[in-house]
């Protein structure tokens, strides 16, 4: 709540075998080794948004999964912003650490209430050798608020990182993700959906760095933009020297529902190694008139036909979520959004 963990609304301690949940404040003194990728931070190379979080994000959640433990139940972190006359922006941090051979699912949801302010979150993830993390992010703050989210991931050998983003709320919603494949045969699979209405700007900034041999990465992002909204996708694949055997793919597809909507897409490749397979692509288009005509000719009215085509376009990102409850909630949320 407003950047600080509320113990009365949280379940901390050891709720599951091999799992320890704590606040960032407590972990500083009790388990500082778990915060190594997150602390001590420096603002030397930080942009303004990261510097703001470093300066004011003193609390948050720490999730630790011991080696060899498989956590079946999702772990849910909820960021809630309730700005008032004393503060405008809440800053918080999340640290996720999986030791060798561990697996877990973590869901982060950002919500808010009020006609101003917003949230600034920073998530640091460290994956041990052979570990697997499914990370789901739902950004759904109030339409008048701002959300700034950042995720930094470091992967050990043969680790697997699966990320699903849903960038939905805020007048400006920004999600930044930096993934470093630091161990051989690590894999990262990133997918997401941004759905803009009104004058929203939904901004995706992604960089996947292949720093070890024989690693695999996938990026699949889709945008649906209506009214005067703007979608931004800036996705990079960086293949470092020595990262031979890299297999990296990236795609960004955008659907414009209004002639005033705008999609800015910039896929990037930087390859400094041999024997690699890399490809990227981007598309921007509108609803298929032939498909609309086909549906209407079979008795479906135009609003319903448009909804069917929009959901068909967005289904790839939604269906990638394994958790049925969350998938149903996202589907309902999108139904309200394009109604």
Number of separate structural domains: 2
Helix content: 10-25%
Counting DSSP H or I runs of 4 or more residues, the number of helices is 5
Q: Name the average pLDDT.
A: 89
Structural class: alpha/beta
Please report the distance between the alpha carbons of the first and last residues: 31 Å
Counted beta strands: 17
Cα shape: globular
Describe the structure in your own words:
It is a single chain. This protein is of the alpha/beta class and 339 residues long. It has two domains: 7-288, no CATH class; 289-339, no CATH class. Helix content is 17%, strand content 45%. It is built from five helices and 17 strands. The strands form two sheets. Strands 1-2-4-6-8-10-12-14-16 form a nine-stranded mixed sheet. Helix 3 packs across helix 4 (302-319) and helix 4 (302-319) runs antiparallel to helix 5. The longest helix is centred in the last third of the chain and has 18 residues, at 302-319.
Overview in brief:
By secondary structure, the protein is α/β, with parallel strands linked by helices. The protein contains five helices and 17 strands.
């Amino acid at each position: 709540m407003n950047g600080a963990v509320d113990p009365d609304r949280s379940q901390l301690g050891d709720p599951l075998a091999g799992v320890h949940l704590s606040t960032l404040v407590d972990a500083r003194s009790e388990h500082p080794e778990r915060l190594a990728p997150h602390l001590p931070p420096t603002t030397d190379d930080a942009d303004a948004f990261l510097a703001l979080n470093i300066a004011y994000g003193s609390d948050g959640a720490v999730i630790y999964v011991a080696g060899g433990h498989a956590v079946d139940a999702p772990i849910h972190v909820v960021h809630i912003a309730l700005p008032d006359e004393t503060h405008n922006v809440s800053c918080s941090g999340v640290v996720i650490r999986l030791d060798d051979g561990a697996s877990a699912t973590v869901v982060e949801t950002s919500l808010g209430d009020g006609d101003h302010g917003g949230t600034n979150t920073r998530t640091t993830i460290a994956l041990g050798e052979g570990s697997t993390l499914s990370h789901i992010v739902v950004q759904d703050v109030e339409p008048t608020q701002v959300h700034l989210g950042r995720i930094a991931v470091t992967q050990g050998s043969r680790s697997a990182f699966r990320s699903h983003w849903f960038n939905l709320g805020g007048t400006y919603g920004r999600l930044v993700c930096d993934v470093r494949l630091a161990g051989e045969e690590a894999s990262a699979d990133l997918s997401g959906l941004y759905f803009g209405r009104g004058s929203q700007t939904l901004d995706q900034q992604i960089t996947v760095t292949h720093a070890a041999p024989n690693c695999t990465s996938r990026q699949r992002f889709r945008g649906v933009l209506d009214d005067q909204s703007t979608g931004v996708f800036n996705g990079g694949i960086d293949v470092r020297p020595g990262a031979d055997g890299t297999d990296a793919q990236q795609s960004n597809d955008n659907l414009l529902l209004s002639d005033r909507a705008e999609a800015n897409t910039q896929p990037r490749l930087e390859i400094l190694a041999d024997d690699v397979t890399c490809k990227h692509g981007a598309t921007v288009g509108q609803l298929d008139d032939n498909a609309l005509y086909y549906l209407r000719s079979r008795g479906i009215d135009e609003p319903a036909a448009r909804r069917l085509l929009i959901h068909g376009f967005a289904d790839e990102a939604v269906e990638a979520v394994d958790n049925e409850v969350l998938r149903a909630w996202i589907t309902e949320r999108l139904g309200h959004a394009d109604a």
